[in-house]
Amino acid sequence: MATTRDWAEQLDANDELAVYRDRFVPIVDPGLVAYLDGNSLGRPLLATAERLEHLVRHEWGSRLIRSWSEGWLTLPERVGDELGRVAIGAAPGQVIVADSTSVCLYKTVRAALALRPGRIEIVTDTSNFPTDRFVVDGIAEQFALTVKRISPDPLTGVRPDDVDAAVGDGTAVVVLSHVDYRSAAVADMAAITRIAHGRGALVVWDLCHSAGAMPVELDAAGVDFAVGCTYKFLNAGPGAPAFLYVNSKHHNGFRQPITGWIGAEDIFAMADRFRPAPGIRRALSGTPPITGMVGVDEGVALLAEAGIGRVRTKAQALGRLVIELADEWLVPLGFTVASPRSDELRGAHVMLRHPDAERLSQRLIDNGVIIDFRNPDGIRVGLSPLTTSYAEVWHALSVISDVAGTGP
Cα–Cα distance between 115 and 108 in angstroms, integer? Predict the structure, then answer.
């Protein structure tokens, strides 16, 4: 097996997506070897910088408050429709950009519970992202509900059999992540959703580690609700607004708990009582964050141009490269590959475990390899197909090998 730098550079020479690296703001840090944390914060687009300048100078600076009626008010739906089409398999009118992931999750879980009155149980898993677990626990405490926790195999993630064993007649909603934030294990969305529906429960999917990195087919899978962030693989920027999806079959009964004025039927009526807007717009609460939404719009536009299929193919190839190099260079140094080896079952990152991972992570960052430490012993190698090169991965793994092999 060839694992030379020349081999990695040849992979870059044949990479159809390599041209998109020039569409991002250049990194000027001379000490940076590799940025492998785009699954926590994606890099900024040049188009976003230009669009923000136009926003400040023209839309905000010159048109002032008139810009609300000249396009700003419809951005949450317009960008949501495009995000649904390009990235998550949702027909128009079902996706809207709003709030943070935590707030969107709270809204959708509460809405699902309201659609299943009399049921007193929420199912989630012990490996779910902290936000998801904390939101579920908070809602359960608030409404005296029971939380049933699946304890999945860390390497495979939550499987359909796990859900089948956990969901019962009293389950109102199942809350799971499509891609495990530690192992990158991909859950079988369609099968799990069918199982939950078979027991009369609804499902809320967290797409934070899949939206923009792999095809998602929400409509085809019959998903009820989904949420996700935009600052990872969609490169929308730090704190950029999240999105939520509500299947059209639930629109008439969908009631979200934070009923702000912007989600009303007529926002300028200043009515005495809240009357929800028709369709997905009722999911809104407060004033849309226009500056943040610009980044979402540009990130989705670039993804549409690149194609989610090609992005997924490269993510799988980058993951294979990490695993191959880890097997050759890092396993002899005490590392373990803690992500699925099957391309189909692995998202766009690879988890490497090591007993001294926390200390090694800081040394790697100090040596120009930006990765994530994940408690208790994980080094997460993020692979953003539009910005990560094969040579970058090769250099990063080489540095990891050198740092781990030199001791304290």
Answer: 11
pLDDT computed for residue 1 by the predictor: 46
How many CB atoms neighbour CB 73 within 10 A?
17
What is the C-alpha to C-alpha distance for residues 176 and 123, in angstroms, rounded to an integer? Answer: 8
Q: Both tokens of residue 349?
A: 């990152």
- The DSSP letter of residue 263 is G
Q: Is 148 a catalytic residue?
A: no
Partners of 228 in the β-ladder: 243
Q: Are the beta carbons of 345 and 312 closer than 8 angstroms?
A: no
Residue 380 appears among annotated catalytic residues: yes
| pLDDT (average), residues 281-286 | 96
Question: Catalytic one among 43, 119, 182, 232?
Answer: 232
Marked catalytic residue, from 15, 206, 224, 372: 206
| Reduced 3-state DSSP string for 355-393 | CCHHHHHHHHHHCCEECEEECCCEEEEECCCCCCCHHHH
For each of the domains in the chain, give its residue range(s) and CATH number, in order of start.
Answer: 5-46+307-405 (3.90.1150.10), 71-305 (3.40.640.10)
d(CA 374, CA 216): 25
Token readout for 199 is 């027991």
**Is 232 considered catalytic here?**
yes
Dihedral sign computed on CA atoms, order 387, 391, 394, 398: negative
The yes-or-no answer on residue 78 being catalytic is no
Looking at residue 3, what is its pLDDT?
74
> What's the rounded Cα separation, in Å, for the pair 245 and 237?
21
Residue 376 burial (CB < 10 Å; 0-12/13-18/19+)? exposed
Active-site residue among 43, 51, 314, 380? 380
Instruction: Please answer whether residues 56 and 294 qualify as being in contact, where contact means their C-beta atoms are separated by less than 8 angstroms.
Output: no
pTM above 0.70, yes or no: yes
AA identity, residue 113: L
Q: Which residue in the list 12, 129, 149, 164 is annotated as catalytic?
A: 129
Write the pLDDT tens digit of every residue in 137-158: 999 999 999 999 999 998 999 9
| Catalytic site residue from 106, 231, 245, 335 | 231
Q: How many CA atoms lie within 13 A of 197 on its CB side?
A: 12
Rounded distance, CA 378 to CA 183, Å?
A: 9
Is the CB of residue 173 less than 8 Å from the CB of residue 109?
Answer: yes
